[in-house]
Write a structure and sequence with these properties.
Strand order of the largest sheet: 1-2-5-4-3-6
Oligomer: single chain
Strand content: 35-45%
Shape: globular
Distance between the termini: 36 Å
Number of helices: 5
Largest sheet: 6 strands, antiparallel, barrel
Order of helices and strands: EEHEEEHEEEHEEEHEH
Length: about 210
């Protein structure tokens, strides 16, 4: 589990994609801070995707990526030199500065607008109907592993578009500072909304 408070921006060293039937990949990332105490089997969030360390060098770590993860996230689009947001998993003594983030990316969205303001940047992101139903104004959303608050949600025929505010600290410390119109981002909706949906669906089945 994570909090969505990015610890450092890492740099992709390489991504080796298995083009065979399985379609998995192996990703190596340079991240001196998160690597310093990482061990085999530890979890690290890479731009919002929870991945398991299978190898570690002085300042790099390597993870295996399943086909499902490549399908649902932007991990498969990475190449050497790209920057990614990194966060180690929480511990019992960790402050929960953001919100509960599992690192289980639900899908991706596309940046449709970026408007700079004096104290923050407003970014708008478009999503399809499969994610739109989980969004709510003032609710929580993880964008590339960053815990953010939804400003508003505007439904449309294609799904919805929602807004987020990026303060200077977040802009400087994470990859969202470089996101432009057309950029694809990993999204994880609030897990509570998914459980509520599941419980209501089960109740309806029982009463039918």
């Amino acid at each position: 589990m994570f909090t969505g408070i990015v610890e450092e921006r890492g740099e992709v060293v390489g991504l080796e994609v298995d083009e065979g039937e399985v379609g998995s990949a192996r990703l190596t990332v340079r991240g001196p801070l998160v690597t310093q105490d990482a061990g085999h089997g530890d979890s690290i969030s890479v731009s919002g995707v929870c991945l398991t360390v299978v190898d570690r060098k002085a300042d790099t770590f390597t993870v295996d990526v399943m086909a499902e993860t490549l399908l649902r996230s932007t991990i498969g689009e990475l190449s050497a030199g790209d920057q990614v947001n990194l966060e180690r998993s929480v511990t019992a003594s960790t402050r929960l500065g953001g919100h509960i983030v599992q690192g289980h990316v639900d899908g991706t969205g596309v940046v449709t607008m970026r408007t700079p303001h004096a104290a923050y940047d407003e970014i708008r992101i478009a999503v399809g109907p499969e994610l739109a139903k989980y969004l709510a104004g003032k609710g929580a959303i993880a964008v590339d592993g960053i815990s953010l608050t939804v400003i508003d949600v505007v439904d449309n025929e294609a799904g919805a578009e929602f807004g987020i505010g990026i303060i200077p600290e977040t802009r400087a410390a994470t990859t969202i500072g470089a996101a432009q119109v057309g950029s694809r981002v990993n999204l994880e909706v609030d897990v509570v909304a998914k459980y509520v949906e599941r419980l209501l669906a089960a109740r309806d089945r029982e009463w039918a």
